[in-house]
Design brief:
The chain is of the alpha/beta class. The chain contains 11 helices and 10 strands. Strand 5, helix 3 and strand 6 form a beta-alpha-beta unit. Helix 1 crosses helix 2. The termini are far apart. The relative contact order is 0.11. GO terms for molecular function: acyltransferase activity, transferring groups other than amino-acyl groups. It comes from Corynebacterium callunae DSM 20147.
Length: 341
């Protein structure tokens, strides 16, 4: 082979290599799912918390985030925004939140729903019966196994720092939503921290926790949930903190917030097929209680001129058929308000 032939062959190989590199680079920029790969395919973590891949899939990371207020690591399941956007959506759990996983990834799949979107899902794990509040004292009646709840401090001071540093979530560009107990907390936290949350959603929440009889109902629910003492949360029935943390009396901070509330009728519907009869009965009572408090809250909020959207489905009990339908129904609203399509 002549020198010219050798040069031609080498030149052809070089061109082929350059074409391959250029093609791969182009695919990384414009190929299907490649934007997600750029922002989602690596684990976050720093000195205040480390992350591992979560079994839920869809790029969800389970991060142990240190809470100085609670003196322990708090697990948080996080799905990064698809294209690195700085919006965040906090999804809060219900009364029986477990330490295994946030229920939005177990009883429904919020991560699959929001996988195509440019918003970071933030799903704290644990906090059963806490109402995601800062408690006056330890929650548990047993001194040998103390449960310290300082969730408001964690969600509004400690976690935002971690999210900003590791996931690029802005401190002032967040939405928050929750079911049942989490719905109560979502409106409370948004009202008390309007600079953090631009949107708040309550799905079957209890929005008048100081109404007659509610203290007794909460006492029974907390004892059943974890043997917790309701007086340790905000003090006795006459303590002012009970009113400061009741959405019915704590709505002034929502003046510039997009608010969505929902509660169903408690009547069984197609979405409740397969639910055990005893659970249906309990779910009906719980949902009717939520409906009454939600309608009362809406009436007062409108008198105060708040920007509220309310949805009252004709059927549905206090269960995941209802909660999941609201998650899906509000997705477009969240993405529009947060500019995170």
């Amino acid at each position: 082979m002549s020198l010219r032939s050798h040069a031609g062959a080498a030149s052809s190989k070089l061109i082929a290599i350059l074409v391959a590199i250029a093609t791969a680079a182009a695919l990384m920029v414009v190929g299907t799912g490649t934007a997600a790969a750029a922002n989602r395919d690596w684990l976050r973590g720093d000195n205040s918390g480390t992350c591992d891949w979560d079994g839920a899939g869809y790029w969800v990371q389970r991060c142990d985030v240190w809470s100085q207020a609670m003196g322990r690591n708090i697990p948080v399941q996080i799905q990064p925004a698809e294209r690195g956007g700085n919006a965040g959506l906090y999804l809060l759990d219900g009364m029986r939140a477990t330490d295994a996983s946030n229920a939005w990834l177990v009883d429904t799949n919020a991560a699959a729903l929001y996988a195509p979107n440019n918003i970071t899902l933030v799903m704290p794990v644990g906090g059963a019966g806490s109402f995601y509040a800062d408690w006056n004292g330890q929650a548990s009646l047993s001194s040998s196994d103390p449960v310290i709840y300082m969730w408001e401090t964690f969600l509004t001071q400690e976690l935002p720092t971690y999210l900003e540093q590791n996931f690029g979530v802005a401190r002032n560009n967040n939405s928050i939503g929750g079911l049942s107990m989490g719905g109560t907390a979502a409106l409370n936290l948004a009202a008390k921290h309007p600079d953090q949350f631009r949107q708040a959603m309550s799905w079957s929440g209890y929005l008048n926790t100081t109404a007659p009889g509610m203290q007794t109902l909460l006492r029974l629910a907390m004892l059943d949930t974890g043997g917790f003492n309701v007086n340790a949360m905000y003090g006795s029935i006459v303590n002012p903190r009970r009113f400061e943390n009741d959405p019915f009396w704590n709505m002034g901070g929502l003046a510039n917030t997009d608010v969505y509330i929902s509660a169903a009728s408690g009547l069984w519907g197609p979405e409740d097929n397969g639910v055990r009869a005893d659970h249906r009965l309990t779910g009906s009572v719980l949902e009717v209680t939520s409906l009454i408090s939600t309608r009362l809250w809406e009436s007062k909020a409108r008198l105060q001129g708040l920007n509220v959207t309310a949805d009252y489905p004709a059927t549905g009990i206090h269960g995941w058929g209802q909660f999941n339908s609201q998650l899906v129904k509000t997705q477009g609203r969240v993405l529009n308000v947060m500019n995170a399509w």
